[in-house]
Hints:
Largest sheet: 7 strands, parallel
Number of helices: 15
Amino acid sequence: xxxxxxxxxxxxxxxxxxxxxxxxxxxxxxxxxxxxxxxxxxxxxxxxxxxxxxxxxxxxxxxxxxxxxxxxxxxxxxxxxxxxxxxxxxxxxxxxxxxxxxxxxxxxxxxxxxxxxxxxxxxxxxxxxxxxxxxxxxxxxxxxxxxxxxxxxxxxxxxxxxxxxxxxxxxxxxxxxxxxxxxxxxxxxxxxxxxxxxxxxxxxxxxxxxxxxxxxxxxxxxxxxxxxxxxxxxxxxxxxxxxxxxxxxxxxxxxxxxxxxxxxxxxxxxxxxxxxxxxxxxxxxxxxxxxxxxxxxxxxxxxxxxxxxxxxxxxxxxxxxxxxxxxxxxxxxxxxxxxxxxxxxxxxxxxxxxxxxxxxxxxxxxxxxxxxxxxxxxxxxxxxxxxxxxxxxxxxxxxxxxxxxxxxxxxxxxxxxxxxxxxxxxxxxxxxxxxxxxxxxxxxxxxxxxxxxxxxxxxxxxxxxxxxxxxxxxxxxxxxxxxxxxxxxxxxxxxxxxxxxxxxxxxxxxxxxxxxxxxxxxxxxxxxxxxxxxxxxxxxxxxxxxxxxxxxxxxxxxxxxxxxxxxxxxxxxxxxxxxxxxxxxxxxxxxxxxxxxxxxxxxxxxxxxxxxxxxxxxxxxxxxxxxxxxxxxxxxxxxxxxxxxxxxxxxxxxxxxxxxxxxxxxxxxxxxxxxxxxxxxxxxxxxxxxxxxxxxxxxxxxxxxxxxxxxxxxxxxxxxxxxxxxxxxxxxxxxxxxxxxxxxxxxxxxxxxxxxxxxxxxxxxxxxxxxxxxxxxxxxxxxxxxxxxxxxxxxxxxxxxxxxxxxxxxxxx
Length: 813
């Protein structure tokens, strides 16, 4: 039995929070019922796509369809319709015949990659319409948000850009005349940024069918040979009259776009920090911008589907979405705009790359887990933003933050633990967490205050503002998780330390009658080790959909990433400074465009590769070791697993040198839908391409999902004595005709893994060969999930597939 999960969005007025003076819009999700047994995808995909933006803030939409009120509903009708007449008129007729409504009830019409529309309906009307022939599903237009992590700490929008490191010869040697087009679904773009100059770029590809719609910003907003297209979406009919445009008024979309495909900009920095050359993953690629999010309305599912629909018709090659759902929210595939749009985009040969989410480190928090989506986790790079503390006696304690402190470098400022500064009638727990109402101003004034951050009731910025308002001159925050992620606090001296480092400071405070300290301004430290490490906020597997697909797929840089920013952000600027042209932010929103850039580079080099072949290349060439030549760890130092990093950290060189690929075919996805409980009639409505003789396999069940031709292997409900045999097929794409690959297995203790055959003898390029993997064990059930790998090598290429085996039920996470 499948138990559904239902959530209610409590629509509240838009709120402004003084976190670096950015607007933060908050929507609260109230869980009504939970526990989803994920027998099928129908009950397991995300309801609320959200933009993995500011860690600690996000958009919320106060305009959600609620109850019986006339709200916006999405009517999904499967594959793109064919026939005479306007699809909008067809949809309007459907509404009129059922509801006798006016044409202007229709907000959006989808007609390129798939069929459907968004309309204003009551709940009763929507229910009636769901019974009409041709309607696959109908659901309230999801409220999308700019995403946050579980931490309340303020972190900024997050994007990945290759910055001040040794440029990858393979990526940067890509032809500047690349015709690969990356579509960015986000908050828009700041076209004047130097990252988007079109110097030395050739003509716009003739196959581009899109447009540059500047809206009411047509005087200053323009496209060029780098940004070749721009669209914007809103839920109001007269959007132009409201002054809307593709211009980014948040910063997130600009950061994402420049990370994926920004031109090389020398001398880039954030006020002198992280100085170097900022360059996107595929600087020769073109960019098409689809602004699906706005401060007024957040990010609505109807807009995201409209952007997917337009992008399919426009001719993009890659779609990059730093969007996703909140962990724990599972909904039908047919109610999830991202999963639906991605399915049809992949059908049209477009690789769809999405963030894994920022709800880590909780197990099972990964989102965007449909197998046709390329799901990206976030990891650190070898750069640290260090803001150190100097204690009396010149003892140095390392801290993490971005601040431009003007304190003296000598430790001359009184230092106090917040607990010791509490008011007489205050709660001790609140005081040590630097709650403003719990601190005695006389004990704080003129001092540096050491604050705990374990109450989950206030952000680091709240602590900073509270101490500052009482006359404190600096703040040291204790937080093991955010210690590895730098946030910016302007000119105020604030730094973050771990509990281990805090113990040293507390010991010093307790040993001195008059303890003193200072906080030094931030410096960039390069060649930091170990790196990469999985960021604390990066969402983790196993997939809430099914344990028979390993998610996330890959990890990429997502911590302290420098990339382009909107040019008018005075709120971001420290006191006395001009707005920044580049910004440093963190999140899976940052790691996503890193992979999008790599995907674009691979597509340029291998234009005939399908989305699944490109995904396979990236996954099977990934690395699982750090710059200490040791296994990748999490930010806490624990050994990371494929539930943390998927196949591993992306390699920008090996991924451009593929040997074998796993192609997940249309038949695989159709079978996947069968295994997940869809009947044949519904599958025929959803899929554009389906063999005439296709039928769901007789033994259709969730455990069969393990056999779709995915680059990684996941097995659940494992009985060691019975064993399990999994099949895979690889294609020789290296160009050499005759070659032999041999297998090497890295199996965990207690698990027996046998591969048949042990050699694959290819006689020509393009040839496909299959093999089987049999898992057995004397341990039944397994005490824990176990991991290993299968690597095929011919001496030149290594093709590695990670696997996970679990005795836990595949029917639920």
